[in-house]
Amino acid sequence: MPVSNQARSGHSQPAGQDHERGVHLVGPTTQYDTAGIRCQNITPRLTDWVPTVLEQLRPASIETVRTEAAHADAWRASTSILDETLPGWNAQDDTWGDATAEAVAYTQAITELALSEVDESTGSPCHVRRHESLIETVEAVGTGRGAVNAGLGALAKGPVALHQAFDPSPRAITLALDGPAWTDLTDRRTGVRALAAIAVLADGFDVRVVASPAVQRELARRYPRWSEIHLGLTHSRDRSPSQGHHGSDERDAVGDATQSVWGSLAELASAPGKRRLLGNLMPDQGRSYRDLKQDQAIDIEAGTVSRYVLDLEARGLVSVDRRGQRNTVRLSDRGATAVNQCLDAEYDLVHPDQRRLDEGLTDTPHDSTSTVSPRREATARKPSTAIDDWLASTGTPEGDAAFVQWLDSPDETLQNESLHRRFTIPARGSGITLVDDPVTGFDDSRVTYLSHHHDETLVIIEWGGALATLGRLAAVLLSEQALNKILTPSRVGHGFSAIHDGAFDTAAGRTLRRGHQVGWFSADEEQYAQWRTRIEQVRNELLARLSDHRGSTDTAARAALFEDLHGLIATATHLYHAAGVDLTITLRVPDTATVVGTERCRSELCEFLQHTVPKQSVYGIHSGYRLLFESRPKKLKRRLPPDVDDGDTLELTASWVIAGPTITELQSAITKALEQTNKNLRDTVADGTEQVPTLTIPVRDGTTYAAIRDVVETVAATTDTTWTAQTRQRLVRLLLRSCGPRDAPGHASPYDAAESLLRACHSEPSPTVEAVERAAASLPATRFRPDLPPTATKMYATLCRASQPLGRTEIIDRADISESSYDRRLDVVQAIPRVRPCSVSGYRRWRVLPNATAVPGASTTVSLPWWLSWPTTVSRLLPETGHHPRRWRLLLDCRPPNPIIPPRDCRSTRLSARSGISTPGQRQRGRSRTPWPRSVTRTTADCRLVPTPHPAQIPRRQGGPR
């Protein structure tokens, strides 16, 4: 990688006096000083440029160490430096992770390099090899190729922490991004890791990112959250924006801002067109004037769009970008506040105080009868609305509902974009993904859902038979909503010149007609307006025919309708693909039992997939179906000649997800049905005369361990969350346990897993495993911990959502269960490892321990029951009472022991009837012959063991047994 001349000279630059730590965007024409480290052609691959940065940084780090070292001995000097950069690094009760170990190795290596002089010409070979080894350690830290293959955590704890602690002013690092490498990147996760490395460097240095306008747009499109935080798109430079409560001054400021926006909107009471225009804009994506003129939801004259936009801009509600070939409009911060706080679903004005009435009318804030202070957190942690029930409540098109509806979130704990990701993340790449999920049938199965975020479109339809499902799919893909917001003129071009980003030399109309084989697209429809009129006419005609022939016995008419609907759907999916939109189709099958158990229904679903999915295949700009299956001579003559290389494969224009209670039982049947498509290959393709790419349609199980792991990885990549490998493994195990069905261990619903992760990421930037479980506890009781009895699930979910220990009455009230159910299931709940009792103000409470930390105000003294000194008595009584915990507790009339709150590295100790307390080593050599109730097993560490006196020594009024 090219480096600057200054870096080659080997002299380090002093820390800049006017530099500021963080990421600063530098345009190609921006004037800035060239001091410090400069690297060209920064690609998304970490290993391509991080070692170069560390190589150039090494002289500066050596200089810093020499300035700060208080000892001539390298070991003592490195120890004093680590005390500053990694406080507590040498604590004996802590265990190092890979990042800490590699950071310590880096610090010791850079210190030894700084305090030792090795002349390669005169030094011994041993010293020279040692010197080279130290340099290798320094330049490999945090790259995954270091001493212990640690990741970015080692980079943060090593060189970044060193310069952050000892440089009074940050040094400058200039990174010039390689434009083609970033714009042509296919694996988004590679870019996420590179941007995470830049953010880590920004904690200790003044990182200047040089990016062309095209690269800036690509970063903002693919990594919106990172771009918003680090590239100056907001006024805040905080990497972890506060999610807590606002102070009174902040609330007053927010209220004043809302009132100011309301003042700007009040004058629009008599201008519904402007309100509709404002309500159809977005803050994160600009829309061109042409799109706004074509959007039928806005429904204003084309000549008034520009005038309305200028008026809204003067009010500060929208911002206009006039830098490109076409002006684009998006909501400003004030405009976003206006849409969210002052406009309803019908674009009518609603005063913000009136909108807050529903939020203020809450339940009684007192969760305990003895508590008079308000506890608002409890009301904010109620179980969330069930997504599946929300989807099922479609309404009826004969009423006020629409056939095609936008997918929106049922509550504020899950944003619309997160709900969109909940359904798209389980799609495991190209092909068909089967998801066992207890979906509920729609109120009206004709209703379909549509969602679009960041060049990703989601379609949700319900299975209603092959013909009806095809009609629903065609209706939603080419609906008014899709044409107004997705397949817009700005996306495809006024003359479809923007398809494939204009990368092909062939004319756009010829590419679509002869390459993609787009139907109903003659030379007269090569302009967007004429094409839209034509495609709407075809759509409406086919839907009318569907209404006439559904249930008809006219085989010929139904066959012709099948063919036309397949052609219309293939046309739509190829247009989405050519426009650069990733399409995910979710097919819900509520009555899976009938489909699986009935031969006719099973065959209909399998044949539907067999004939529909292969038609959604593409090879570059060529239709996959036309390459492999088409046999009509006239059709074959009207196609572009493909250039096929050995080993090339087709890709699908849409990913399919099929969800149902037991849909994975059809995996083998669907796979066999898709394999039957080989019989339909064209003769010249089947005998190998014609060279064509291969078509592979994998059918994957979306509920396995690997699938849930992919969900965790995808959520981490899309939300820029930095979980360690160990944390990700713990998350996978947690989700398999929390979201897995009782009769299928090792499996879980990817929808529930994704929803839990996204809710946790919405509540805090880098959620812990405990935070994810808390979010999972917000799922409906039937979806969280189905391995537990329903009452126990409600009790455990209530404890997970609570921020304070809860008593019996509070658990009963919050979980909405009866007292008898609580008593019957308490033993099941307290057997869960993280559920522990505690004593608060003398009352017994329960809570879920986060990472086995101590409960504030809880007693940690363990009272050993008196019967431990009387093993013979207990051994004689146990066979008569059985091993039920409540029985022997009542019999012995003993208070349960106080809670034991262990530290991180505690060891498990078993209470034995014969020997009192046995160590783990004794348990390995042999167990007590006397069976002991399971609930007597306790975890003890740093706890004071206080034996309880014999009953004969206790006065009778203290409750001792007679």
What does this structure look like?
- The protein is α/β, with parallel strands linked by helices and 962 residues long.
- It folds into five domains: 5-230, no CATH class; 254-361, Arc Repressor Mutant, subunit A; 402-408 and 419-701, no CATH class; 705-836, no CATH class; 862-958, no CATH class.
- The strands form seven sheets. A seven-stranded mixed β-sheet has the order 8-10-11-12-16-9-17, sandwiched between helices. Strands 1-4-3-2 form a four-stranded parallel β-sheet. The chain has a three-stranded antiparallel β-sheet with strand order 5-7-6.
- Strand 21 (907-912) and strand 22 form a beta hairpin.
Blueprint of the fold:
Layout: H1 5-9, E1 22-26, E2 37-42, H2 46-68, H3 74-85, H4 98-115, H5 125-140, H6 152-166, E3 172-177, H7 179-183, H8 188-202, E4 206-210, H9 213-222, H10 224-230, H11 248-266, H12 272-279, E5 287-288, H13 289-294, H14 305-314, E6 318-321, E7 328-331, H15 333-342, H16 352-355, H17 357-360, H18 376-379, H19 387-392, E8 404-406, H20 416-424, E9 432-436, E10 448-453, E11 456-462, H21 466-477, H22 480-485, H23 489-492, H24 508-515, H25 528-549, H26 555-578, E12 582-588, H27 592-597, H28 599-612, E13 617-619, E14 622-623, H29 624-628, H30 633-637, E15 651-652, E16 655-660, H31 667-675, H32 683-686, E17 699-701, H33 705-718, H34 725-739, H35 750-763, H36 769-776, H37 790-801, H38 808-815, H39 819-830, E18 835-840, E19 843-848, E20 862-864, H40 871-881, H41 885-892, E21 907-912, E22 916-918, H42 920-925, E23 938-940, E24 945-947
Parallel strand pairs: 1-4, 2-3, 3-4, 8-10, 9-16, 9-17, 11-12, 12-16, 20-24
Antiparallel strand pairs: 5-7, 6-7, 10-11, 13-14, 13-15, 18-19, 21-22, 21-23
Helix pairs in contact: 2-4, 2-6, 3-4, 4-5, 4-6, 6-8, 9-10, 11-15, 12-14, 20-35, 21-25, 21-26, 25-26, 28-31, 33-34, 33-35, 34-36, 35-36, 37-38, 37-39
